[in-house]
Amino acid sequence: MTVYNREEVLLQATNVQLTFDQHPILRDINFCIRNITRPGLLQGQVVTLIGRSGIGKTQLFKVLSGLQAPTAGQITIHNNKSVKAGDMGVIFQNYYLFEWRTVYQSLMLAAKKNKQLWGMEKQTIERYAEQFQLTEHLHVYPQQLSGGQRQRVSILQQLLKGSDFILLDEPFSGLDVCMIDKAVELLLQVSLSDELKTLIIVSHDIEHSVAISDTVFILGTEPGKEGATIKKEIDLIERDLAWRKDIRREKRFVETIEEIKACL
Amino acid sequence: MKKLIEPFAIINRQTFMIMVAAQVVITLLLWQSFSDGLIPKPGKVASAFVTLLGTKLFIENMLVSLLLTLKAMLYSILITLLFAWLSVLPFFKSVALFIVKCRYLTLTGLIFIFTLLTKDGSELKLSLLVFGIVPFFVTSFLSIIVNINPQEYELCKTLGYNNWQTLYEIIIIGKADQVFEILRQNFAISWLMITMVEGLSMSEGGIGTLLIKYNKYNDLTNVLALQLSIFIIGLCFDYLLGSLRHWLFPYSHLKTATK
Ligand SMILES: Nc1ncnc2c1ncn2[C@@H]1O[C@H](COP(=O)(O)OP(=O)(O)OP(=O)(O)O)[C@@H](O)[C@H]1O
Ligand SMILES: [Mg+2]
């Protein structure tokens, strides 16, 4: 059993509801994400949000990031501060980038927002670009990138911004097997870069996202009630499924995946 | 051959050029055979066109008109940019929307008021042109602003931009290339109006006055030759503004290429 602690609350959702034209999309969403600590490690948090298509994942994602105000309830981060747009790094489903900015310019815009990078934006961008295999593509426009390159720029842009929370909507869609492994590697790397880094992944790709997570939330509907809510929370650390490299081959992992699928 | 009338069929460049050439030849033949004494034959117009190009009269008048158009376009685009940028502030939104509706005002009825407001003929012409062009420019620009992809705003928000920074990034910087597209698309309107406006104050000359003179003497050959040169200069500007846009904003080229 790994030694770990769940400490202070990093993000809290309280009674969140979202209604569009009298149709509840989300209701009674309550959960909290705590800082997980492990001795001798900078262990960030990775949370996966799973649910069927059209259930409201993207909407919850927008509410969490402060882009969409909930009809009722609230999301608070860092000691009860209400979340507002810009507090979180948000990577959308289709990796939108400003079409009129080169990759370098786009990254610079984000780096300039990060006070910790003052004076060394350029070096940081170059270092990250190297790591993300983007060095040759720094001076082209988004239209000239492949899907995977675009995704890496998108992720890198939000990383450079330096927020503790990184939200990713479908980070594995449209990537080939090799690229998925790279993306997984990348996310793990990010989650280990800072004690407070918290990744929230919304994905259809249950295996890949669960394999790197410590907690899974399942979004679904309950009979007789309109609107989706968190139907189930699975603590993967407790089941000893978190932070293990080749977890995907183990039987217990496969069983958990089956359990999640049955829930959808 | 069948491809030529098939929807979305892609034909190669060479075929296209041959097709265009054939169409031009057919048009000229039709013109040649159906024109009688009143309507001059193409050959006559062509030779008049060549002689016209060499005359000092033509060059001087053309320069006057071009200069006036360019001046009017410059003023118009500045006014347009100001109002279009400000249109995202609620206070200026109504003003911008009103300007858009001004397209339905005809200039003819306002000439008198403008004559009272301006000092001399050239000022009258310029202000009439600007007044005529601006509504079209603003209309184009506002439709660009309305059609902005919501994701552009979302990305700004996630980067923590405030509303002023968003205005700067998306509308001022992000749509700068569109300014050239607006100029290009509306150049035709300015060019159309210049001939009309120039009739109002003949003393400064211009192709509009030239046209009126030829029309008065029923010199149809020269009228057509002049029309031809107006048409060609219009095309040149269209091309020039298009290339300028691609040169200044390389990404605009990418956008149209993938569409
Ligand atoms: N602007 C809107 N107005 C009304 N209903 C909306 C709006 N946007 C989304 N919805 C509805 O909200 C529900 C949830 O949409 P959402 O995009 O969050 O689904 P999702 O879980 O992300 O699906 P997917 O996995 O396919 O991306 C859908 O039923 C959709 O019809
Ligand atoms: Mg979605």
Task: Tell me what you see in this structure.
A 6-stranded mixed sheet of chain A has the order 6-7-8-3-9-10, with helices on both faces. In chain A, strands 2-1-4-5 form a 4-stranded antiparallel sheet, covered by helices on one side. Chain A is an alpha/beta fold and 264 residues long. The mean pLDDT of chain A is 89. Chain A has 2 domains: 185 residues, Rossmann fold, CATH 3.40.50; 66 residues, no CATH class. In chain A, strand 1 and strand 2 form a beta hairpin. Chain A is 29% helix and 27% strand. Chain B has 259 residues and is mainly alpha-helical. Chain B has 2 domains: 34 residues; 219 residues, MetI-like fold. In chain B, helix 3 packs across helix 6, helix 3 crosses helix 9 and helix 5 packs across helix 6. Chain B starts with 12 loop residues before the first helix and ends with a helix. The mean pLDDT of chain B is 88. Chains A and B meet through helix 4 of A and helix 7 and helix 12 of B. Magnesium ion binds next to helix 1 of chain A. Chain B: Keywords: Cell membrane, Membrane, Transmembrane, Transmembrane helix, Transport. Chain B: It holds the Pfam family BPD_transp_1.
Describe how the helices and strands are arranged.
The complex is a heterodimer of chains A (about 260) and B (about 260).
Chain A: E1 5-20, E2 23-37, E3 45-50, H1 57-64, E4 72-77, E5 81-82, E6 89-91, H2 103-111, H3 121-131, H4 147-161, E7 165-169, H5 177-191, E8 198-202, H6 206-211, E9 215-220, E10 229-235, H7 251-263
Parallel strand pairs in A: 3-8, 3-9, 6-7, 7-8
Antiparallel strand pairs in A: 1-2, 1-4, 4-5, 9-10
Helix pairs in contact in A: 2-3, 2-4
Chain B: H1 13-34, H2 42-54, H3 56-86, H4 90-101, H5 111-117, H6 121-146, H7 150-158, H8 163-173, H9 176-198, H10 207-216, H11 220-248, H12 250-258
Helix pairs in contact in B: 2-11, 3-6, 3-9, 3-10, 4-6, 5-6, 6-9, 7-8, 9-10, 9-11, 10-11, 11-12
Bound molecules: adenosine-5'-triphosphate and magnesium ion (MG).
